[in-house]
TrEMBL record:
Keyword Oxidoreductase in record: yes
Protein name, as recorded: Short-chain dehydrogenase
Transmembrane segments: none
InterPro entries on file: KR_dom (IPR057326), NAD(P)-bd_dom_sf (IPR036291), Sc_DH/Rdtase_CS (IPR020904), SDR_fam (IPR002347)
CDD domains associated with the record: SDR_c4
Similarity comment: Belongs to the short-chain dehydrogenases/reductases (SDR) family.
PANTHER family hit by this protein: DEHYDROGENASE/REDUCTASE SDR FAMILY MEMBER 7B, DEHYDROGENASE_REDUCTASE SDR FAMILY MEMBER 7B
Native source species: Deinococcus arcticus
GO molecular function: oxidoreductase activity
Record key words, sorted: Oxidoreductase
Gene Ontology cellular-component annotations: membrane
Amino acid sequence: MTTHTQRGKSAFITGASKGIGRAVAQALVGEGYSVTITSRHQPEIEGVAAELGAQARGVACDVKDPQAVQAAVDAHVAAFGGLDVLFVNAGVGHFASVADLSIEQWQDVIDTNLSGAFYTVKAAIPALSQRGGYIFTLSSLAGKNPFAGGAAYNASKFGLNGLSEVLMLDLRDRGIKVTQIMPGSVATHFGGHTPGEQDAWKIQPEDLAQLTVDLLRMPARTLPSRVEVRPSRPRKG
């Protein structure tokens, strides 16, 4: 059985200074992967890489900048000799009614969550094609369930879901798997939230990291192309 969890492999993870991206990086290091983790904030991402150990590189990279993304991916390939797993996780959110949402806020969300995902995947395809890689896009149940005040965020995640489905169809003949992960409420720092005991009912970042490892262990012939994840006991009221 051929799986993607093998020693000597490497992963590139965006938005990994905290939360889901950081948890995925930690899990993959535990599986023997070398990882490049990115964030817009250099001291923060370098600190996380130091905590993960010698298998990790921390790189400052804004996914809204396609040249910066390409340079970061190229540096990863040069450092590790290839690329096996891409975890597209970088995301932001601004929440307001359409009347109150600024153009700058709209652009920040769409450019990060959707265009940034495209830039990242585009940069990584040549290296992933060499080794039969795996792409994960971190979407959201907000990509199918609109809510008031979510114009930019909903649009970005609806778009990311569409992009992910096309990537799956475009890239499978290259031997690249694509899975979109769509979680509900996750206990992260997203939107300035500070996780705590009040979030015990939510999906935890390490749960999604475990899911990622489990998907990588699937037989090469099988592709769960979309995975929806919900809290098993959501808070009432």
